Amino acid sequence: MNTTTAERIDSQRPRILRLYNLYRVILGFGLTLLTSSSLREGVLSLSNPEVYAQASWIYLFINVLIALSLHKGRRDIHLFVLAVLDITLLGIIFYAAGGIGSGFGNLLIIPVAIGNVLLHGRIGLLLPAMSSLVLIYLTFFLSLTHPYIGQNYLQAGVLGAIYFAVALFVQRVTRRLYLSEILAREQAASLASLEQLNQLIIQRMRTGIMVVSADNRILTSNEACSQMLNRDVPQGERLDKIAPELEQRLRQWQRNPSVRARSFHSFNGSTELMANFKHLGSQTGDNILVFLDDNTQVAQQAQQLKLASLGRLTASIAHEIRNPLGAISHAAQLLAESEQLSVQDQRLTEIIQQHSQRMNRVIETVLELSRRRPSEPQLVDLALWVSHFAADFRSAHPPTDALECDIEKEGILTRIDPNQMTQVLNNLCNNALRYSGEAGQARAILLKLYVRPDTELPVLEVIDHGPGISEEHLGHIFEPFYTTEATGTGLGLYISRELCESNQARLECDRVQPHGCCMRITFAHPKRLV
Predict the structure, then answer these.
(1) What is the residue-wise DSSP string for 2-54?
(2) Which H or E run includes 164?
(3) Which residues pair with 520 in a beta bridge?
(4) What is the DSSP-derived secondary structure letter of residue 230?
(5) Using CB atoms within 10 A of its CB, is residue 64 exposed (0-12), middle (13-18) or buried (19+)?
(6) How far apart are CA 512 and CA 504, in angstroms?
(7) Residue 362: which of 396, 397, 327, 313 has the closest Cα?
(8) Is there a cis peptide before residue 467, judged by omega within 30 degrees of 0?
(9) Taking Cα atoms as reference points, which of 228, 495, 502 lies closest to residue 377?
(10) 274 bridge partner residues
(11) Vertex 344, ends 342 and 349: CA angle to 5°?
């Protein structure tokens, strides 16, 4: 038997010893009862009642002492001595009871069997050998001291062979049982290791994973799920209390699983999330597995496809529209130089040239958008970046244009492409100045940088106190080519929003009371991987 098997047996010794000692104490009580002549009359005929009584009481007393001190003597030598003592005392009782005919020789089978369960290897085979020798010797000794009692040597030999058979059988069965137990424990350890590995992988995944019960209670979730929902997701909590938007998507999916769930935002200013659902079992009442994906990467891929399509379109525009537009503008210039034109015709040529220039600016802006390089995000201190931008902006504008900064604290970090975001901020500030008053007048705008306490996301606001944006225009200002000015291209805010999305930021517009406008940029968390 190998070392691992022996260790497994050692671990089971206390339990086996408790059961074995309980059996021995019960057996001792039973043997002492038979010391009463009235109880054994007609059941047992003793050859030596005095020896039987003494041996029975000694057997009971020793077993009670051993049972009370069970925590001691668990080594092989102690177990072997215990088995030998058991065989010796039962052998004496066997002799006093009258030998083979009493049937007490069968009592030696239990010590032999238990001894071979507890003892390892060949030492266990000493027990059936000793039991057989004790049985044969006492049978022979009884034939000398009590010749009137018939002794069956053949039965004694068969009983000795049974001892050996029981010992070999118990050792074989015990080895198989413990080997099976070892295999089961190794498989359980392997499964536990795999489960731990799976849990670690799930916790490290960027996809949010959540298991929801049939009554909409959260059973488990990973770390990415908490980050996307921007709050702890305790087990047993109801889903509608943690993420009402997600709970609505779940109910929509349960009503019609074939319809793809719409994207949603877990909180104001958060990234766009997409939820997918799957039953863990085959029944509709089983637990539901929820997958949460950040749509940022999908949006970026869609943005790249859109820019690629826009690039092909602008190439066609440059060839099909720009060249004829240049010819129209040149012809209008030549026509304006004619001395025979009336004043009204001169005005018409000016209108042609103005609108030709406007269309050319639109084409230039679209070409610039299509040629825009991919963003190169880096970790940026927004407080320092805003301060530098404000200094550069003030130096490029007259003193009548005031730019104030309200920075909550230093060390507000995020990951952006500073060149692209400088272009966005410059566009927003110029728009804010333009709507704050006429050039040359006293105009003021405010840059406010802070961290939202509920989401820990950096926010930059560009605030002016102009007339603001009307309700009818507020929902369309980020659409391409949408403008309320006769000379505008309608692409400034559209390009700003596209650049923000390329840097995992969100650009929103709010009205300021009593009048004014706030363009708000919500940046990504600095720990977000781009």
Answers:
(1) -HHHHHHHHHHHHHHHHHHHHHHHHHHHHHHHTTSHHHHTTT---S-HHHHHH
(2) helix 153-204
(3) 461, 508
(4) T
(5) middle
(6) 25
(7) 313
(8) no
(9) 502
(10) 293
(11) 95
Residue 2 predicted with pLDDT over 60? no
- Residues in CB range of 61: below 8 A, 6 or more apart: 28
Alpha carbons 407 and 448: distance in angstroms, whole number: 6
- Coil, helix or strand for 463? strand
Tell me how far apart the alpha carbons of residues 249 and 234 are, in angstroms, rounded to a whole number: 20
Structure tokens at 349: 């040529």
CB 242 within 8 A of CB 292: no
CA angle 136, 139, 145 (to 5 degrees): 140
Tell me the pLDDT tens digit for each residue of 366-383: 666 666 667 788 899 999
Give the closest residue to 76 by CA, choosing from 107, 42, 122, 109: 122
**Cβ(228)–Cβ(242) under 8 Å?**
no
The answer to whether 442 and 471 have CB atoms below 8 angstroms apart is no
DSSP code, position 241? H
Segment 422-463, tens digit of pLDDT: 888 988 998 888 888 777 788 889 999 999 887 788 999 999
**pLDDT greater than 50 at residue 5:** no
CA atoms within 13 A on the CB side of 370: 17
Question: What is the strand order of the sheet 264-265 is part of?
Answer: 218-221, 208-212, 288-294, 272-279, 264-265
Secondary structure (3-state) at 401: strand
CA 31 to chain centre: 63
Counting every residue, how long is the chain?
A: 530
In this predicted model, what pLDDT tens digit does every residue of 232-280 receive, in sequence order?
A: 788 888 888 888 888 888 888 888 887 777 777 766 556 678 888 888 8
CA–CA gap between residue 431 and residue 184 (Å, rounded): 73
Say how far residue 439 (Cα) sits from the centre of its chain.
58
Is there a contact between 389 and 427 (Cβ–Cβ < 8 Å)?
no
Cα end-to-end span (Å), the chain: 58
Contacts of 104-110 with C-beta under 8 Å, sequence gap 24+, read: 105/135, 105/156, 105/159, 106/159, 107/27, 108/134, 108/135, 108/163, 109/162, 109/163, 109/166, 110/23
| Helix or strand run (H / E) with residue 229 | helix 223-229
Number of C-beta neighbours around residue 441 at 10 A: 9
10-27: per-residue pLDDT in tens? 566 777 888 888 888 888
3-state helix, strand, coil in the chain (%, to 5): 60, 15, 30
> How many CB atoms within 10 Å of residue 24?
24
Closest CA to 94 of 138, 38, 30, 144: 138
Backbone φ and ψ for 255, nearest 5 degrees, come out as -75, -35
The two structure tokens encoding residue 388: 């530098």
